[in-house]
Amino acid sequence: MGTQKRRIEDLALLGAPPAFESQVHVGRPNIGDREKLLERVNGALDRGWLTNSGPLLNELQSKLADYLGVKHCVCTCNGTVALEIAIRALGLSGEVIVPSFTFVATPHALQWQQITPVFCDIDPETHNVDPSKVESLITPRTSGIVGVHVWGRPCAVDALTKISERHDLRLIFDASHAFGCTHEGQRIGGFGDAETFSFHATKFFNTLEGGAIATNNDELARKIRLMKNFGFTYYDQVDHIGTNGKMNEVSAAMGLTGLDSLDVFIEANRRAYHHYREALQGIPGIRLIDYDEREAQNFQYLVLEVDEAKTGIHRDELMSALHAENVLARRYFYPGCHRMEPYKSYFPNANLLLPRTEELSKQVLVLPTGGSLGEERIRVIAGLIRLIVEGSAELRERNIDMSKLRLTKYGETEVKSIPGEHR
Ligand code: T4K
């Protein structure tokens, strides 16, 4: 369950045992009724129909279209391929405006097709593209905008729609985080020319791996359906360029099972969010992002902004200290896509136009959350953050060098010869 720590000496950083015996992850999958899932998977095995427009996929697509309130929802093998197909089906080329503060799949889906992502800065309040910065980035080569609803909070849908209409640009929303969320009462999914979802295991709604493209445009949907299946129109007739973007029946079974439990997932996430909110209250320099509860939210991401001027400790140091306790907080989307390859080689000075992105990506820390975490563990995690922040001056006095904490994949932390007092 985790040990509630109250004294600086109890921190793993100082050699004490970690608060949690095993690693506590962000992105734990939401899993619905296992019996029902296995029943569906067994049905697929019995039918001997495992992919290529199986009955489970067709049922899922039609239920998703109803849920999202769109005419068409085409499922894909993952969210990256959903983006790639939407980009291609809409005929994007040249340059496309996109935030850098996103998962790298968003610009990769463009660059993969030789389209140049032009990074736009964000609004630090919303973490989403700042629409007032978009128009100055438009050139004769610009063909579209990809907005991202980061953390499930809708980006400036109306402003971006107006800009795209004014300049005759295509508009896609990467809604990977926003399944189940609304903007002005309308489900995310129906905005722009198309919206894409990721149903990766770590997402609010998952199909193991998977994704979808939602659109109200019949012709676009027809193209997308062709493109995700090699362009086949009949058994041996290919009428379009295509790829293999199909979702299989086991993934569809997972999706159908998850759909039955959406309300349970949301309620568990909402409760966890409020437990954190209460437990983190009053910690100087720690701000938990807000979700507008007048809208539907999925509360999948527990996002802190760490203001070093007030905490006395840098976000990375706090993260290292948490990793030492087996709390594997993540610094999404550090360092910003513009500082990742190939973009940092292509645009070495992109940072000059992205001051807000630069700043925020040094402040954000995403904590483990979700239904399986439970109130007690949330209190332990929040208690650790309080102890580390409130004890930061003392940690400095003890000459604890937190940069000595080395992080490895999934945050396995090695604490190496930390100077200062040890227990
Ligand atoms: N656009 C946006 C805005 C996105 O956020 C994403 C994906 C995409 C597009 C592309 O969609 P996909 O092609 O992925 O469908 C993770 C996810 O892999 C990625 O899907 C997601 N965004 C991104 C935000 O997070 P990593 O590199 O952090 O993944 P990983 O493997 O480190 O997992 C995160 C945590 O979840 C770990 O602490 C372990 C835990 N975990 C992971 C898996 C796979 C589990 O507990 N169980 C699991 O099964 O990217």
What does this molecule look like?
With 423 residues, this protein is an alpha/beta fold. It has 14 helices and 18 strands. It has helices at 34-47, 55-68, 79-89, 105-111, 157-166, 218-227, 249-260, 262-280, 308-311, 315-324, 343-346, 355-361, 375-390, 392-397, and strands at 24-25, 72-76, 95-99, 116-120, 142-148, 170-174, 182-183, 186-187, 194-198, 211-215, 232-234, 237-238, 286-288, 302-306, 327-328, 364-367, 405-407, 413-415. It has a seven-stranded mixed beta sheet, with helices on both faces. A hairpin with a 2-residue loop joins strand 7 (182-183) and strand 8 (186-187). The longest helix is centred in the middle third of the chain and has 19 residues, at 262-280. The chain is globular. Mean pLDDT is 94; it is low at 415-423. The structure holds ligand T4K. Ligand T4K binds next to helix 3 and helix 4. Ligand T4K binds at residues 25-29, 78-80, 102-103, 105-106, 148, 174, 176-177, 198, 200-202, 211, 328, 332, 410.
